[in-house]
Every structure is written in C-alpha cells, then in structure tokens.
Amino acid sequence: MSTQDRLKELARIKKESDEQKKKEWDAYLVRVEESKIAKQQKKQADSIEKSKVTTTVVKDDLGFTKCTSQELPYYKVKNLTTGLEEQVSFNDYIRKHIYKKFRYPEFAMDHEIQGRVLVYFIIDKEGNPQINDAVGPKNGLILEEEAARIIKSLPTAIPANCDGKPINISYAIPIMFQMEE
Q1: Is the Cα dihedral 145, 148, 152, 154 positive or negative?
Q2: Who's near 84: CB < 8 A, 6+ residues apart?
Q3: Would you say 126 and 166 are in contact if contact means Cβ atoms under 8 Å apart?
Q4: Residue 68 C-alpha from the chain's centroid
Q5: How many other CB atoms are there within 10 angstroms of residue 144's CB atom?
Q6: CA distance 43 to 41
Q7: How far is CA 174 from the centre of its chain?
Q8: Measured CA angle at 120 (ends 116, 124), to 5 deg
Q9: How distant, in Å, are the alpha carbons of 5, 6, 16, 25, 68 from that of 2?
Q10: pLDDT tens digit string along 141-160?
Q11: What is the DSSP string of 101-114?
Q12: pLDDT digits (tens, 9 = 90+) for 28-38
C-alpha cells in the first residue's frame, strides 16, 4: 500500500471516529436535557408535597429546630492497630470515602468534561444517605451521576440526634472532577 493510500485510510478512520464521538455526544446531550426536565418536575412535586406537610417540631425565631443537646452523625470503625472500635466523625469519614470510591467517568475523559459537582443530601434518621440533588458544570450530567454514586455508596452511619432522638441532617459536599494535563 502506498503512503498516499495509507494516509487516506488513516483519514477515513479518523473521520469515522469523529462521527462516532459526535453521535455519542449528541445522545448524551439528549440525556442531559431529559435530566433537567426531570429535576424541574421533581422540584415542583417536592414543593407541593412540602406545602402539605405539617410539623410539630419546636422551632426558634429563625425556623431552626431547637435542641438542648445535639450530636452529628458518625461512624464506628475498628482500629487496625489496637483492634478496638473507635468513633470517626462524619466529615473525616466522608473525605476518605470519596477518595477511595472516586472514579473519573471514561465518557467524561473522552469528551473533556470537568468541573465541580455539589451534592446535596441528607443522612436520615436511620443513618442512610438520601440524595436530594447534584449540581455540576454545564453538560456535566455524567459527573453528577458519578458524584451521586459515591455518596449513595456510603455505609450506614450512626445518625445525628437532637435531645437523644434521631433526626435527619442535611449536607452539601463538593466533589472536583479535574483532568490532569
């Protein structure tokens, strides 16, 4: 095969690859739009539901729950050196958890999608994570999904409590997706 024929073949392969990448990107953008619509519908449904809920929780002047003693969620983990169980704060545990579970999505690398995703979630009365929302960069749905997967994979925590009763507690955690150059 001549050099010119090889160059033509390489150009044809590159063109096919570029076309495939464009098809993948277009299909992804459709998913992004569907996700935006679903989020808007969920927000509307949630606001309607919240307007129906009545609570008997004691609130202060600013609308916050009053507690005489409050404890944040935490984890009990076994110390590998001593073999004893020790208490680890939620913030310390989640930092290590994100580091261990983080995987940069291949699609995001191929299409150079990067940025910060802010995951809003609660640790419920049973100590389980419940994702409320994940907000990332424009067209960053794949990053939002990965950030939500990381948070959903948290093990059950010892829940927060207010005056000895378990309560839900809200968190917002930023996760950075940045490709190395």
Answers
A1: positive
A2: 78
A3: yes
A4: 32
A5: 24
A6: 5
A7: 8
A8: 150
A9: 5, 6, 21, 35, 84
A10: 999 999 999 999 999 999 99
A11: H----HHHHHTT--
A12: 888 888 888 88
